[in-house]
Amino acid sequence: MGFFDKVLAWTTQLDLIMWGPAMIILLIGTHIFLTFRTRGVQFQRFFASLKLIFTSESRSEEGKGDISPFAALMTALAATVGNGNIAGVGTAIAIGGPGAPVYMWLAGLFGMATKYAEGFLGVHYREVAPNFTMAGGPMYYLKNGLKNKKLGRWLGAAFALFGAIACLIGTGNMAQSNSMTISMANTFNRWFHGGTAGQQAPVLYYYIIGALIALLVGLVIIGGIKKIGRVSEKLVPFMILFYIAAALIVIFANLDKIPAAFVMIFKSAFGFQPLVGASVGLAIQSGISRGLLSNEAGLGSAAIAQGASTSEDPTKNGLIAMTGVFIDTILVNTMTTLTIVLTGAYLQTQAWQGIEAANNITSILVTQKAFNTVIPFGLGGVIIAFSSFLFGYTTLLGWSYYGEKCIEYLGGDKVIMPYRYVFIAFLFFGAILTPLAGKSFNYLNIVWNVGNIGNAMMAIPNLIGLLFLAGVVARITREKLYQKSAG
Fold first, then answer.
1. pLDDT score at 161
2. Residues 297 and 104 sit within 8 Å (Cβ to Cβ)
3. How many angstroms separate the CA atoms of 66 and 448, rounded?
4. How does residue 330 score in pLDDT terms, banded at 50, 70 and 90?
5. Quick one: three-class SS letters along the chain?
6. Distance of alpha carbon 123 from alpha carbon 389, whole angstroms
7. pLDDT by residue (tens digit) across 390-420?
8. CA torsion, points 128, 129, 133, 135, in degrees to nearest 10?
């Protein structure tokens, strides 16, 4: 067994442990608990939350903050709507079968209450940093909100530490640059060399694409949150609408298969559809873990973005924050799921054929294959490559800010600029990881495993804080949202 085989086995095992029954119960339990404590705010105030996005007030930059509430949402969405929506969904289906997205949807619906609480607390307990920027997020509401100050400081430091690490070697960095590079390299290989899905592109492609990603990200993140916010509020709406429009082309070409597709999805989710390499347990584990990787409800990351908002009303920031889960999971993830299931791309995954299948495909290649079955001349792959690049690019921007605030919490503002340069270096390494690892595309799961593990280590202190502070969220939400509207 080679080095990367050992790393794959170790990270896979640790991923399964971290996302075992205890974590799933904690995460889903928090979602349900906060849904009850907020009186189902995601259902009662859903349309009001969408309306807030389009008001002029949400775009106002007047107030105690660095960016407008809309720019804060777009920054959070920039980080949230990433390659987890393309590659992560594909990986979840490859591992857990077509039923895995059902658990993404369920976790997303209840997770909207959790995202509301995170956005709320991110503003309610934020501070002004020594460099006069706003500083919010789980580390601050853990430190300032918990009655046990010693526990709060320890949990806040733990979140910041694991957040900084995850931003370098997990979800917010290497996982994104790796998926972006694979998708683009695969497309160029198909164009110029007649390559096929699953065939590795020339090594030089990975280095060129990685250098391009590093340059484009560096030009923005060096300018801080204001520049990230300006880029995000222009780029994020375009990329989401573009991807949905492209997915609808695939879906409309298979309209007659939609009823059967949903039957297959739900049968697989609840164990009524036999699969060679998957089970209901794997569907739940992969669906929920990839769901968090995608929508980040429970991770605490959105609280960092909302903490920079100029709005001082925590309930408004909470409502705006929770719309991100709906857009990410219910809209974008569903588009990816339907394209994979309707086109039969899932039939070549390990969940369907067994883990040793010779033509096994996973990650972003599943989605790319789905689009290519309908859109001719390989243009489906081009669309996925372009979408992957945009999704990954904006995610890198958003997560660079998250990591920056985490490292600032630990070491002060003097470490911000060095962290930005290290962030850029790591994303380049993520881009060239595939040729370094060898020809096996299974090694790509190392990156996603690390992302899952990092997310779990961030989520644990955040979820503990949310449970302790649920009373604060419930009381102010009742006073500001429900009593005001009743009066």
1. 92
2. no
3. 32
4. confident
5. CCHHHHHHHHHHHHHHHHCCHHHHHHHHHHHHHHHHHCCCHHHHCHHHHHHHHCCCHHHCCCCCCCECHHHHHHHHHHHHCCCHHHHHHHHHHHHHCCCHHHHHHHHHHHHHHHHHHHHHHHHHCCEECCCCCEECCHHHHHHHHCCCHHHHHHHHHHHHHHHHHHHHHCCCCHHHHHHHHHHHHHHHHHHHHCCCCCCCCCHHHHHHHHHHHHHHHHHHHCCHHHHHHHHHHHHHHHHHHHHHHHHHHHHHCCHHHHHHHHHHHHHHHCCCCCCCCCCHHHHHHHHHHHHHHHHCCCCCHHHHHHCCECCCCHHHHHHHHHHHHHHHHHHHHHHHHHHHHHCCHHHHCHHHHCCCCCCCCCCHHHHHHHHHCCCCCCHHHHHHHHHHHHHHHHHHHHHHHHHHHHHHHHHCHHHHHHHHHHHHHHHHHHHCHHHHHCCCHHHHHHHHHHHHHHHHHHHHHHHHHHHHCHHHHHHHHHHHHHHHHHC
6. 31
7. 888 998 999 999 999 999 999 988 899 999 9
8. -70
Looking at this protein, which amino acid is placed at residue 246? Answer: A
Is residue 353 predicted with pLDDT exceeding 50?
no
* Distance in angstroms (rounded) separating the CA atoms of residues 256 and 259: 7
Contact criterion met (CB below 8 Å) for 271 and 85: no
CA distances from 431 to 169, 204, 232, 426 (A): 12, 11, 22, 9
Say which CATH architecture domain 3-486 belongs to. Answer: Up-down Bundle (1.20)
* Two tokens, residue 201: 């592109």
Write the pLDDT tens digit of every residue in 63-91: 666 788 888 888 888 888 876 777 667 77
Structure tokens at 327: 């857009």
| Res 156: pLDDT | 95
Residue range 277-289: mean pLDDT, rounded: 61
Whole-prediction pTM value? 0.86
Least-confidence region, from 115-124, 419-428, 441-450: 441-450
- Tens of pLDDT, residues 290-316: 666 667 889 998 899 888 888 788 999
